[in-house]
Design goal:
2 copies of one chain form a homodimer. The first copy, chain A, is of the alpha+beta class. Chain A has 26 helices and 20 strands. In chain A, the strands form 3 sheets. In chain A, strands 1, 2, 3, 4, 5, 6, 7, 8, 9, 10 and 11 form an 11-stranded antiparallel sheet that branches. In chain A, strand 10 and strand 11 form a beta hairpin.
Chain lengths: 707, 707
């Protein structure tokens, strides 16, 4: 389940290597992480603060402002990441990024996940139910404006609230002025505020997807492993006024691809890292947050596995949930492993000890920032008391219908307020996205909804206890499964028109509704709001105020040329194509199609290793030594899925789709000794499109043939 | 994982229907459970207190003393349950009861789980590494002798300890006198103590097992479901002095089998029920015990699934663990569902309210027993504080090597003490079994051991926190997986001779050992003992003293003709062969071979639905309308696996192997509206042996042909 601390992206700054050389005391902890003495290929750099010096020093590459702007405007936020790859709005991303839409576009008769899809003509392209694409257009530093709202005499909670309101006002003003989608991003967990303005598109159509079995070849078994053999790609097209988007900025295709040791760059949207969380914060993650989330991943995986095993239709409607759960479980297991690794924790402890000593040795710094670490620890200590409760009240009932019901209940309460006073996700600048999801015609499956709700109700009871008043009221005298059946069978919200009517009717319509899920969402909402307020006041607000101090201490010591922790916004990473050693064995950077067929034969008949028939039949047509997947040291994390890998000429040489197992601790600390980003090679994409999918037109569009 | 409350089998008494008719107030709760007004087919009856009146009244069947003795002495305790079915020591049990031995007898080249096994001659029978078989020979009520050890002035903890010592003395005296294996069974959680004396055999050889894919056809998907199509059988033979055991008492085979509505009886070893746990005890199970155990089942299932997916050899060595975990998870899910069902809990609450009111209305009873319920609640409240800690210290490291190391460490500490002062599992009467397991030559697989230990270390860290001193000491500065690798690679205990030397060397040898697992077990043992003492003093002892009062109150109100909760010892259950209704659809009591092939075709190619080639090839040879699996209302639970189903003539008509989903709440309350025991039909066993397995000799031995 999604967990509240997704809200609290704690900022992490990272000193540049060069500044470290003269400063022996502090950075040993982090130097160790990346190999002493070498400049690391580390960093998820802000588009407006690129690592230009680092790139020049280590690789002799100096991206121009035009190069950077071009890459920025050709990158798309599409859930995770993607890029524009033709002048006609063609988007390249991962299959597992597009799979939610593939599932929504599927029916029992048309199984796009299983069979793949290719639109030979624009008319055949399939319009997605609720897909949203954003291009980052401008960035403005509004830190001073935001902080001006917080007065020195305010409590952390009040200051947090005042800044939130000011942020909404700034966003709204910018939106009115520019007509762009405007959103303030909190960087370094509160040290900086940048206003990001996006072009936004909602007419997105499916162009091409391969079969899931080749996109995710090796299944859960090979996920996060390397060598790999996955064609994890998917193509969409953005439309504007019912015409393909004419775009000035798109990435050209590299026919040559990348070679070993070539510098490559990755532009994408890493979701969250916690690299410079305080030591106590990491302990909280290790002892509270990760165990809780892992347990729920394990439970849900077993429940979903049971669900999909019940028959072919269950498998079809449940496989995307199952993939997401397994993928998250494997990623969290890696992250948790890092938190349980005493070496990583010791590095963190040393680093923090030295930084705090430096602050304490400077009376002015001590007065300004000295209490930051303890304040964060105290806040997290308090959070322990209601962490599990907030998590289940907020996220246990992860069903489409409950989400719709809760959105309707909250919309009715929020819309009458001025935008700045609303829950942040209902502020004016967010409403288009809210309605896109609320009125999505995507199919909703009763059986899956029942399974999700029954699992969620069981989780609530298990976490809060069977006699808890909220649990008792939620179960309403039934067992979890009985209650789930009753809620889903009685729910009217599968019908989009019903949702529209309820939304139009506002609070009165909600109060009058007999829909059991509306009633349940309304009953749970007060406790949800109370817990959220408690979280914002006692945890998030305190974190913001005090991580701003931690960041200030880091800036004072290492300078400001540091990247912040990932925030789900556009970042630039870099590094060479490069293999690694594992168990004293060389893992080469590239695989090829021959390796795919070899692995298929080795694991023939095993789960996750089925090869689509057209790949079985098409083997002889393929150039088998075509590079297929490759690894590089670029610093990525979940959210980077679908990121283009580009060469210094700005051409696509690959498509990020994974990190290896050793990269999973990058959540906490970067380490390039074995950790690698994993990508599909641009050459494999073209070869497969032409030889296997008979999709020459799409290949031509990518390579610019006849353009 | 195994959980401490397995130690505390709380007794449950059950009033006979007849006594209820006049006592309207109390038993409605339980009457409701079984259908008002009818005599229920309920009860796991003690062999020395059989339900003779009930059987006579409802079914007109009056088992004689000879009938009962014969069935008792033909029943075998073999992990779970089994029966002697020929005069030459042949044992019938379930495949999933024998599968641990099948795995131990397998190698990469000889996969008995996958391929099955049949010994055409005695010489081909395979001797099991560490299998133990017991026949219950005599029972003696020693309640007064045991209770005489506890003086009125003693605390509950002291009384508990004094009774424990007396029990060891009684057992030892009986063993010296009879040369039998003697064990006192605590019934009604402390109201009665019976001395059970067993004949014990350790030369047990594998005779026949079908392929796992037919024994467990339908896999996890169909487990606990009905209709079913499983040949879940396995045959062993007991040897004495290297000759097949000559047994006077064995069950004859019914060629006719049972028909719908025929009364059948089940003799087996139900492991644990909690039917008359107090309401607060059920709440504890619901809010603490079940959630904890379920979480560990989910985590372990996902970890094992990942393990077995890594390759064919992993699948072979890990599948038994995986089956056990999945089976336990599905059973617990059903039990947890019962605890979360407000209807079941309400029944319990009403029943308890009435019983307590009756006690409180009688001054003498009030003085004697009035505080029992609150005392139990208080003990469980205290248990909440260390439940998770005790569970992981006791059971997280479930690896063969750790178990061996811990046994060696404990043996060295316990053997020098007098038997009555030892930990109960090391008392003199238990030592033969201890050594059988300790010196078992069964294979131990490094990779599986590492996976088990890594998972266990992670569980410890997750439950106790990464900074916990025990966790830190256990991990010794490594990540869980690194530490697991170090422990297993460095361990010397795979070698049986090393174990024998260490055992012979006693405490000095243990102290001098450099084996990393010996050192770890020695380091963890003091905390384990401290927690165990705390548990026995503050929880188990209090439960014993107070459940004895609850039982006394029940005896006073309903008479003594009540069965106690399951204790893993021999019990007799009964009921007719009978279908049921589900979703307004009739589920008939029998399936047949034709249904097997039909289900195979429906689910062709899906996991768990593979049919062995000889079944595919042999279809035409089979009489397809042979009854295959059937259901009856006999009251069973986990531990009954392998129980013979017998007719009133004492002949085998079937073989219990499962209960349906609706029976899983029987842990808490019996309910025969839909709940059913599931068995293999005796006719299917003979048909399959003759037609599919070419095992005519074995079929002849069963049916007595030529005897």
């Amino acid at each position: 389940m999604n967990h509240p601390s997704t809200l609290t992206i704690t900022p992490v700054v990272r000193q540049r290597r060069r500044s470290l050389r003269g400063a022996r005391l502090v950075p040993i902890a982090l130097l160790l992480a990346s190999g002493v003495g070498a400049l690391a290929d580390e960093g998820m750099w802000l588009p407006n603060r690129p690592p230009t010096k680092l790139l020049k020093e280590k690789y002799g590459f100096e991206p121009t402002a035009a190069w950077l702007e071009h890459v920025q405007k050709a990158s798309v936020k599409i859930g995770a990441s993607g890029s524009l790859v033709s002048p006609r709005g063609l988007i390249l991303t991962n299959h597992h990024v597009g799979s939610g839409q593939l599932e929504k576009l599927s029916t029992p008769e048309r199984n796009l996940m299983r069979d793949g899809f290719y639109a030979r003509t624009p008319a055949e392209e399939l319009k997605c139910a609720d897909m949203e694409v954003r291009l980052l257009w401008t960035i403005e530093d509004v830190t001073d404006k935001v902080n001006a709202a917080a007065k020195p005499e305010m409590s952390a909670a009040d200051a947090f609230s005042a800044r939130r309101k000011r942020m909404s006002e700034i966003e709204q003003e910018a939106k009115d002025r520019t007509k762009l989608d405007c959103e303030i991003v909190t960087l370094y967990q509160g040290a900086r505020y940048h206003l990001y303005s996006y072009r936004r598109y909602t007419d997105v159509r499916l162009v091409m997807a391969p079969e899931k079995s080749i996109a995710f070849f090796g299944g859960d078994n090979d996920n996060f492993e390397y060598p790999r053999y996955d064609l994890d790609m998917c193509f969409f097209r953005v439309y504007e006024n019912d015409e393909p988007l004419k775009c000035e900025h798109y990435l050209k295709w590299s026919r040559a691809g990348a070679a070993e040791n070539d510098l490559v760059l990755v532009a994408g949207h890493p979701g969250r890292t916690r690299r410079l969380n305080t030591l106590d914060h990491l302990r909280f993650l290790r002892d509270v947050d990760f165990p809780f989330n892992l347990r729920n991943a394990w439970r849900r995986e077993v429940q979903l596995k049971t669900f999909v095993q019940r028959g072919a239709e269950n498998a079809r409607i449940g496989e995307n949930d199952l993939f997401g759960t397994q993928n998250g479980r494997k990623a969290m297991t890696g992250g948790f492993g890092g938190l349980l690794d005493p070496v990583l924790m010791q590095r963190k402890a040393s680093f923090e000890k030295d930084l705090r000593a430096a602050v304490m040795n400077n009376p002015q710094q001590q007065a300004q920032w000295g209490d930051a670490w303890d304040n964060i620890a105290t806040a997290l200590q308090q959070y322990r008391e209601f962490h599990a409760r907030y998590a289940v009240i907020r996220g246990a009932l992860r069903s489409d219908l409950f989400r719709l019901a809760h959105t309707l209940v909250q919309l009715a309460a929020e819309l009458p307020k001025p935008s700045r006073d609303r829950l942040r996700e209902y502020r004016e600048s967010e409403l288009e996205s809210v309605y896109l999801r609320l009125y999505s015609p995507a199919p909703i499956y009763d059986e899956l909804e029942i399974d999700r709700l029954a699992g969620g109700l069981m989780l609530m009871a298990e976490t809060l206890g069977g006699d808890d008043p909220t649990v008792a009221a939620t179960l309403a005298g039934m067992s979890p499964r009985e209650r789930a059946v009753q809620l889903v069978r009685g729910c009217t919200l599968k019908d989009v028109e019903t949702r529209k009517k309820l939304a139009a009717g506002g609070a009165a319509a909600i109060a009058a509704s007999d829909d059991p899920l509306i009633k349940l969402a309304a009953a749970l909402d007060p406790e949800y709001r109370a817990l959220r307020t408690r979280f914002e006041d006692t945890v998030e607000g305190v974190e913001r105020a005090n991580y701003a101090k931690v960041a200030a201490a880091m800036f004072a010591r290492f300078g400001e040329d540091l990247y912040p922790d990932a925030t789900g916004t556009l970042r630039l990473a870099f590094g060479p194509v490069k293999g690694y050693q594992e168990d004293s064995r060389d893992v080469p950077p590239f695989t090829n199609f021959a390796g795919l067929y070899q692995r298929w034969q080795e694991r023939h008949g095993e789960e996750g290793f089925e090869l689509p028939q057209r790949w079985v039949d098409g083997k002889s047509k393929l150039k088998l030594d075509t590079p297929y997947n490759f690894v590089c040291t670029a610093d990525i994390i979940g959210g980077n899925s679908g990121s283009p890998v580009i060469n210094t000429a700005g051409e696509v040489v690959g498509l990020i789709f994974d990190g290896n197992l050793q990269s999973l601790v990058w959540d906490i600390q970067f380490d390039e000794r074995q950790g690698r980003a994993v990508a599909v090679d641009s050459r494999a994409i073209i070869e497969a499109l032409r030889k296997i999918y008979d999709a020459g037109a799409l290949a031509d569009e990518l390579t610019g043939a006849g353009r």
